[in-house]
Amino acid sequence: MLDQGNNTELPVIPAKRYFTIGEVGELCAVKPHVLRYWEQEFPALNPVKRRGNRRYYQRHDVLMIRQIRALLYEEGFTITGARARLEGPQARAEASMSHQILCQVRMELEEILGLLKH
Length: 118
Fold this sequence. Notes:
By secondary structure, the protein is mainly α. Helices cover 61% and strands 5% of the residues.
């Protein structure tokens, strides 16, 4: 996944549920027209669209944009190469591992909540 150490110049992502395209542009140091282009090139990048076709990005979208940015601008991948890297078996393995970790943390938190209720 994304190594936050590579993005020390990027601001911290605030604790919000949705971000506008302008906010994401500032958080990721990418212009809005580039974000719209990346939506076409990376199928996994799919923000919620509301009234007037306005885009609302969630935290996972912002993290993915930062990862795409790092692949393209810092590691020198092409669009095709970055897409393959994000969709490849290594990316799926990392996503699966992240999912397993999240499930484990959730179970542990539910146990703690049960203990606190008693």
